[in-house]
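Tokens for chain A. Residues wanted.
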């Protein structure tokens, strides 16, 4: 396993649309292992493959709280089958939009079909944090960031800040 570099906005790769996976094999599982390690190290609760520069429909996630046993989850080629009319608002953040958090409103529940780590088809009804996180990560597969759900003014303010942060980091490399 290896920690990969996480791409941050406004990198154009984050706008790429990810392709479905043909086959769940050891190569793909190695990618998912790396993604999970990268996510834990960040730390974060969800990561899409495009965030490490791989335009494949792959998501890793772990919603276990501090002190709970790790509960890694893998979603390959996820498809939303249904979303609820009622919505929920969560303060979202993203490893590709570092240090910024904003409220985003999304359907409160959804039903999803996906392939798991072994390549088995699964269907699941999601609510609460899982529903929000999954919709956030699935947006990444379409080239959408959570800041794209905000007003144009807010988004451009955040992008300006991100560009400034990047310039500062370039001046003083870690
Ligand atoms: Ni994200």
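Reply:
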């Amino acid at each position: 396993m290896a920690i990969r570099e996480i791409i941050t906005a406004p990198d154009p790769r984050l706008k790429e649309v990810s392709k479905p996976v043909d086959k769940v094999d050891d190569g793909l599982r190695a990618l998912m292992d790396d993604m999970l390690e990268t996510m834990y190290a960040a730390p974060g609760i969800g990561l899409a493959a495009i965030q490490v520069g791989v335009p494949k429909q792959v998501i890793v996630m772990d919603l276990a709280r501090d002190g709970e046993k790790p509960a890694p989850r893998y979603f390959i080629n996820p498809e939303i089958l249904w979303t609820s009319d009622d919505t929920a608002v969560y303060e979202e953040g993203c490893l590709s939009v570092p240090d910024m958090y904003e409220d985003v409103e999304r359907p409160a529940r959804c039903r999803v079909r996906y392939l798991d780590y072994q390549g088995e088809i699964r269907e699941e009804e999601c609510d609460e944090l899982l529903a929000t996180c999954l919709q956030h990560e699935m947006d990444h597969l379409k080239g959408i960031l959570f800041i794209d759900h905000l007003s144009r003014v807010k988004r451009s303010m955040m992008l300006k800040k991100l560009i400034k942060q990047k310039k500062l980091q370039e001046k003083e490399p870690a």
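The pocket of nickel (II) ion is lined by residues 94, 96, 136, 140 (CB under 6 Å). The radius of gyration is 16 Å.
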